[in-house]
């Protein structure tokens, strides 16, 4: 038996709270809806649940604009509901991770209201990034489109790397540090098992607010906006708080970066426990790309994570299917990628609905879209609503059990989702849901016996094969069948397989020969 912390090889299920399950009937998911579905998550076979923000918020960015870091928005319930959810999750053997949003607050946060009511140079303004000038202080742009600076009536500018309703904190002010240490303790005292840290690489900005060079793109470590060296002292302080609580409390960072070496800096022994590995999520359907990312990741970090989708990106069923002439390629490749991901050392993060094979919803009417990206780009960018459409649980028409009958979900569900409900798939042994349950159960039965390293095996072009102790995983990203590696039996496959041949867009777990 391994004697390692739970988070090192956990399967974590992300819940986008607004879209998981609605118990109140207002069309928006809530904490009671989640609590009612905990048996489903336990049966699915995950180890932990991560909740996106549920704290009080004007919802300018779906809750990632927090107005009160120590409460529950009435849209989602009460603190008593949250406490009941923690207790029941633990009773089902599930850990609970909550989002913390330290880069910015809501413009409705009491601190920002106080800043606007105070003069330039005041202590209240110093908790945010205010600057003087006739023009914006630099050329930075918002990741949601448009300028990253907005002007207030007295002439000063404030920074918002996201929407104007999300002003950035000034992390060079000690009061901000103390506030978030207290926020962590508040939720740890309520029994949470850890935190997912939003925009973890963005807290500090270049002290001189230098312009971004015209040629620079992405989240490079040399950027004046991202991954400033001072950010690591924040996580050293947070690690001490987490380590002071029993039960292996953990933190995973949302760190967008362009190199595994930079990613590794966030997960040094005295900093964060894990950081998301977005290189895997961004990779095309390619054996060459997958191998490079696996090699780079395992060489750089000791506690790797793997993720295929989340609430900010196009669902991977759709991504993998784009460009293929085979209408079923997206689903086949998604299931194959899942098997490859679950075979690797480290932890895996699933996004709600991927176990149902949900695709991206492309055909949302403009009036239904709520993502600030869509609004700030004047409709030029579709935004992220397409991966956030509420889940289909049961029935043959909307709201598909997401809300009580007659409820109207906050985003419209496509009628073809009647074939993808959890209820319908639960009775079909060939469904995506049944496949996920089998794969997760098998992984759980094997993981204590598997080493934390892999060995590459010889494989034909466009395929990968590796061993991990007695487990062999092979994935065929090509367009023709290939021979299987030597083995002593098939454990599970993502599609049809015989004892000798691996079909295209298919992965398989084998018992080593």
* Helix amount: 25-40%
CATH fold title of the largest domain = TIM Barrel
Total helical elements: 14
Counted up, domains total 3
What proportion strand? 5-15%
Overall pLDDT metric: 95
Structural notes for this entry:
The chain is of the alpha/beta class and 513 residues long. It folds into 3 domains: 6-103 and 173-436, Glycosidases (TIM Barrel); 110-159, Oligo-1,6-glucosidase, domain 2 (Alpha-Beta Complex), CATH 3.90.400.10; 453-512, Golgi alpha-mannosidase II (Immunoglobulin-like, Sandwich). 26% of the residues lie in helices and 14% in strands. Helix 11 packs parallel to helix 14. The longest helix is centred in the middle third of the chain and has 16 residues, at 174-189. It is globular. The model has no long low-confidence stretch (mean pLDDT 95).
Give the arrangement of secondary structure elements.
Blueprint: E1 11-15, H1 31-36, H2 38-44, E2 48-51, H3 79-91, E3 95-100, H4 110-116, E4 130-131, E5 149-151, E6 157-159, H5 174-189, E7 194-197, H6 231-243, E8 250-253, H7 260-265, E9 274-275, H8 278-282, H9 287-300, E10 305-307, H10 316-321, H11 329-343, E11 347-351, H12 372-376, H13 422-426, H14 432-446, E12 455-456, E13 463-468, E14 471-476, E15 482-483, E16 487-493, E17 501-502, E18 506-512
Parallel strand pairs: 1-2, 1-11, 2-3, 3-7, 7-8, 8-9, 10-11
Antiparallel strand pairs: 4-6, 5-6, 12-13, 13-14, 14-18, 15-17, 16-18
Helix pairs in contact: 5-6, 11-14
């Amino acid at each position: 038996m391994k004697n390692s912390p739970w988070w090192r090889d956990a399967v974590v299920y992300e819940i986008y709270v607004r879209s998981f399950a609605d118990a109140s009937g207002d069309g928006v998911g809530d904490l009671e809806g989640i609590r009612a579905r905990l048996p489903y998550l336990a049966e699915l076979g995950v180890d932990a649940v991560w909740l996106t923000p549920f704290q009080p918020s004007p919802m300018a960015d779906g809750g990632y604009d927090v107005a009160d870091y120590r409460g529950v928005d009435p849209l989602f319930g009460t603190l008593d509901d949250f406490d009941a959810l923690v207790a029941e999750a633990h009773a089902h053997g599930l850990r609970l991770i909550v989002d913390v949003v330290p880069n910015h607050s809501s413009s409705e946060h009491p601190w920002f209201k106080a800043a606007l009511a105070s003069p330039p140079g005041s202590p209240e303004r110093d908790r945010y990034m205010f600057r003087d000038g006739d023009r914006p202080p630099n050329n930075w742009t918002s990741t949601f489109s448009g300028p990253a600076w907005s002007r207030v009536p007295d002439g000063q500018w404030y920074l918002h790397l996201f929407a104007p309703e999300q002003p950035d904190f000034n992390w060079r002010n000690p009061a901000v540090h103390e506030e978030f240490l207290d926020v962590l303790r508040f939720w740890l005292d309520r029994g949470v098992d850890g935190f997912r840290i939003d925009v973890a690489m963005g807290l500090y900005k270049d002290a001189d607010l230098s312009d971004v060079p015209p040629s620079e793109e992405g989240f490079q470590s040399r950027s004046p906006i991202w991954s400033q060296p001072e950010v690591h002292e924040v996580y050293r302080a947070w690690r001490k708080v987490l380590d002071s609580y029993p039960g292996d409390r953990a933190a995973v960072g949302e760190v967008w970066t362009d190199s595994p070496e930079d990613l590794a800096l966030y997960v040094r022994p005295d900093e964060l426990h894990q950081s998301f590995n977005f290189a895997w999520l961004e990779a095309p359907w390619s054996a060459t790309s997958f191998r490079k990312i696996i090699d780079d990741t395992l060489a750089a970090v000791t506690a790797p994570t793997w993720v295929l989708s989340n609430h900010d990106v196009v669902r991977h069923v759709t991504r993998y299917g784009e460009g293929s002439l085979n209408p079923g390629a997206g689903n086949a490749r998604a299931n194959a990628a899942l098997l490859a991901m679950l075979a690797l050392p480290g932890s895996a993060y699933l996004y709600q609905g991927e176990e149902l094979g949900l695709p991206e919803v492309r055909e949302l009417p403009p009036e239904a879209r709520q993502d600030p990206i869509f609004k700030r780009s004047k409709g030029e960018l579709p935004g992220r609503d397409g991966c956030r459409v509420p889940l289909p649980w049961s029935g043959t028409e909307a709201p598909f059990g997401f809300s009580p009958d007659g409820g109207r979900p906050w985003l419209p569900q496509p009628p073809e989702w009647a074939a993808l409900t959890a209820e319908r798939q639960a009775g079909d042994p060939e469904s995506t849901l049944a496949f996920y349950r089998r794969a997760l159960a098998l992984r759980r039965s094997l993981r204590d016996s598997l080493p934390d390293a892999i060995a590459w095996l010889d494989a034909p072009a466009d395929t990968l094969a590796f061993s991990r102790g007695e487990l062999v995983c092979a994935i065929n990203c090509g367009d023709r069948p290939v021979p299987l590696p030597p083995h002593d039996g098939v454990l599970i496959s993502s599609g049809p397989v015989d004892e000798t041949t691996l079909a295209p867009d298919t992965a398989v777990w084998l018992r080593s020969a």
